[in-house]
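dumping this here so i dont lose it
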């Protein structure tokens, strides 16, 4: 099998809602996303097939990893949904997350996206880590904003993967993140 035959492409489907989304103001199953406006504006979220509802899998590998993630939970993040190669994480911007311009500090937005990325790339079971990541800030977020980071696998090949994460507030894009994952080999103890 050639390298090109080993690649999975396109957005993943099968996002599974968790029993308790935990994000006030965001109805279960919506992820805070909405349809594009009439002009197809680039700063609006388009529906993603990975938004499909499904049975809860609160005990899967990504959910177990998130439960042990004191940093993300300490920032008030909640794992809303997870499926193979996809995850949705929510966070409300607090006063402690606001910079000198009155906007959410970019480091907190990066952390939110990175957490969704981690849950998506660890949804298969073998332990995966981030190898590289970058983010583009599209619009400011402010104190009190309820943000949703939706991670979607774009491709997996060998032990590597590429994931896109879109952070939204209601139906507006706040940031776009791309992460590259690597499945690590088990370490004998």
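and the seq i came up w/
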């Amino acid at each position: 099998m050639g390298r090109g035959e080993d690649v999975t492409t396109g957005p993943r489907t099968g996002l599974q809602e968790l029993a308790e989304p935990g994000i006030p103001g965001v109805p279960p199953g919506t992820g805070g996303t909405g349809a594009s406006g009439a002009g197809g504006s680039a700063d609006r979220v388009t529906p993603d097939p990975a938004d499909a509802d499904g049975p809860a899998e609160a005990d899967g590998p990504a959910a177990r990893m998130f439960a042990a993630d004191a940093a993300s939970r300490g920032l008030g993040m909640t794992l809303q949904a997870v499926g193979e190669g996809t995850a949705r994480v929510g966070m409300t911007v607090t006063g402690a997350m606001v910079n000198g311009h009155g906007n959410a500090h970019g480091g907190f937005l990066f952390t939110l996206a990175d957490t969704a990325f981690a849950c998506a790339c660890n949804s298969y079971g073998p332990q995966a880590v981030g190898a590289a990541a970058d983010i583009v800030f599209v619009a400011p977020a402010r104190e009190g904003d309820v943000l949703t980071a939706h991670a979607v696998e774009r491709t997996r090949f060998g032990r590597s993967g590429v994931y896109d994460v879109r952070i939204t507030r209601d139906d507006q894009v706040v940031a776009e993140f791309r992460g590259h994952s690597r499945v690590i080999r088990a370490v004998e103890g």
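Residues 1-13, 19-56 have pLDDT under 50 and may be disordered.
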